[in-house]
Write a structure and sequence with these properties.
Blueprint lengths: L32 E2 L6 E2 L46 H13 L2 E9 L28 H6 L37 H9 L1 E7 L9 H17 L3 E5 L10 H13 L3 E2 L1 H4 L21 H22 L4
Parallel strand pairs: 3-4, 4-5, 5-6
Antiparallel strand pairs: 1-2
């Protein structure tokens, strides 16, 4: 097993229910009983009432309960999923459980590599005067205010070179903040107590399969749910692996768990080169400045949609 499979950071890539119907039957006919004193037989009852068998219900009388159809777009069509997801009942359940655990409704966390560091991802929203919201996005300021402090926070589960294995390894936890044996992910969820967590892992290593990636991602999602944080999975803009298998794997996991998927890939499609900075290098991984801005802004839109759906009275 390679160092990458063990979660070795790759710093060079990054900077930044029909119940059964019981059949009705007639009572058995009255049986002659022997008199204990005379041995004579008498009827069991002079006033016995014979039950009339109930007719079987007709087909029209039987209510057939069908399961609710799953109208979600399948993972194989992830490119058609919206940038901002619809919030599911499952997400609401996780959120409510998290509040019962003591999680903070004003906290969200980030889990990821260099594309999630404060300088690159949403950190600007903790710097009043440094950002301008478009006219049709002015309402997003209330969400910025509601989560103030989380945008620019240096979390325990974000670091350049982190991948889906790294955040599950105690080896990469900060010993000054994290407890012995605690993973970076566990540490972040314990320390910050978020109700929402963005999970975005772009780093790809040659030789690692999408199935392996999905396996690690499921562990991350399981951990977040156990701690009462709604996991928000993200597609990536690049296609370093060549077949978009990582985005498919990510959509598959989101579909399996019925948790939100932020389709960042779709968000950057209108940009030149779909947001990939080919002028910087030829690896097809790094984003353009415009893509960075789309990334932070669409994530803010997702956060706003989650806030409205999960805590409508908030």
């Amino acid at each position: 097993m390679s160092k990458a499979e063990l979660g070795w950071p790759h710093g060079m890539l990054c900077l930044i229910l029909l119940g059964a119907v019981a059949a009705c039957s007639s009572a058995p006919p009255a049986t002659p009983l022997a008199s204990p004193e005379s041995g004579a037989t008498t009827a069991a009852s002079d006033t016995a009432v014979l039950e009339t068998p109930m007719p079987s219900p007709s087909a029209a009388q039987v209510e057939v309960v069908s399961p609710t159809p799953d109208l979600r777009i399948p993972p194989e069509q992830w490119q058609q999923w919206p940038v901002v997801p619809t919030v599911s009942a499952r997400a609401r359940q996780i959120y409510a459980e998290g509040l019962a655990m003591g999680n903070d409704a004003s906290h969200f966390s980030k889990v990821g590599d260099c594309q999630n560091i404060t300088e690159a991802f949403m950190g600007i929203y903790d710097l009043p005067g440094r950002y301008t919201l478009p006219e049709d996005g002015a309402h997003l300021q209330s969400t910025i205010d509601a989560f103030a402090g989380s945008f620019g926070r240096e979390g325990m589960a974000v670091k350049g070179g982190f991948n889906v294995a790294s955040v599950l390894s105690p080896m990469w936890a900060d010993p000054d903040v994290c407890q012995p044996g605690e993973t970076p992910l566990e540490c972040e969820l314990r320390v910050h107590r978020p109700t929402i967590v963005f999970i975005s892992m772009e780093v790809w290593y040659e030789g690692r399969t999408a199935e392996t990636y999905a396996g690690y991602l499921r562990q991350i999602v399981d951990t977040a749910i156990e701690r009462g944080a709604v996991p928000v999975l993200a597609t990536k803009a690049d296609n370093v692996e060549g077949d978009h298998s990582i985005n498919l794997a990510t959509a598959t996991v989101a579909y399996e768990y019925d948790v939100p998927l932020w389709n960042f890939w779709l968000g950057v499609q209108p940009l030149p080169d779909h947001g990939i900075d080919w002028a910087r290098d030829s690896d097809g991984f790094h984003l353009t400045v415009d893509a960075w801005n789309v990334r932070s802004y669409t994530a803010l839109q997702v956060l706003d949609a989650l806030r409205a759906a999960l805590a409508p009275s908030g």
